User: Fold this.
Amino acid sequence: MRVLLEWVKNSSITTLLSFGALIRLILIGYSQHHDIAGEVKYTDIDYTVFTDAARHVCEGRSPYYRHTYRYSPLIAYMLTPNIFLSPVFGKLVFVFFDILSGFLIFCIVRQQIGVADSMARLAAAAWLVNPLVMNISSRGSAESVIVALVLLTIYFYNEKLYILSGIIYGLSIHMKIYPIIYCLALYNPLTDKSGAFSLFHISVPRLRLVVSTVITVSFLTALFYCIYGDEFINEAYLYHVTRKDIRHNFSVYFYMLYLTVEYDDIGLNILTFLPQLILLLALTYRFSNIYELNFNLFCLTVVFVTFNKVVTAQYFLWYFCLLPLVAPELNLTKKEICIGSLLWGFAQSSWLLPAYLLEFKGSNTYFFIWLEGLAFFCANVGILAKLIRKHREVMDRVENACNMQAID
Assistant:
């Protein structure tokens, strides 16, 4: 383990990116064989949906002709070469964004004061060689596109290029609506005022960020609404607000959704959303300083995913991409890293057995899936609580050091 860490620290970022790309290309090649020979296909079912939607686009129809296509039309446009070039083209595109995400993690960590390049390379490697990350992108999931857009938003934000940051942020919201939870976290720090009324203070950075974001989201929404009408709004946006998933769901609300699947009760939606909303607002307020932005975004994402009524494996990438940004400043010990990784990994993997029995063997394991979901929920909450305590300890030390300097 120590030899591997030293190799990562001493390797160039180009070497790490090339290594990560090579492994992903090997996995794509393996997937072509496994999909033919294996009982459980390696390629994600969503990739088939993307390809079918791209075929409809190539033939001059709406991508929403494909049942269960509930994404931005941009995904279908990006994958049109799947039809006339190669069926693996889309996977290569997703792997490109996956590798780009690793490079952006390296760049963002280097933006932090006092962080060595070797630590930035280690942070990038935490993404590039993560087995779950490699698996999801090489299976044909589009989450790597969203992750890259979120990281690019943070990079431009840190560089104080607020118009570019707003444009990319607006694009990320259009592609996947969840990044809207970051709006207050990105907005709050861009003022020199304090107190409750600082929220209403209009500064030039705030104006640039908000206007560019709103224009981007509005333009893309209006454009595709003109082309595809209500179908675009319903499938790309509204579906994800009311979505229920009773088969591929890690959520603590899984069993409740299974028992109420035949009912369309707005009260259930409010019940599941209220804890999320309260926690998101509390965290946004608690970590509102600009130097806590990365940690704030990470906590918001963990809470949003953990308390969501639908949680799939792809959602884990939303906070996995932010963890390397905050880990260097938390001063975690090797023991804490190992325990946290084992706890999360065991809680996540133990869910897979009853889920497999339900999906592929037809066994009634709904209750057992829910129990595993409860264990996974507790693991996530416990790990987040630990990371918040570590962050608080670091902030207390920094504050004490600043106070000592002020006394001197």
Notes: DSSP finds 21 helices and no strands in the chain. The mean pLDDT is 89. The two ends are 43 Å apart (CA to CA).
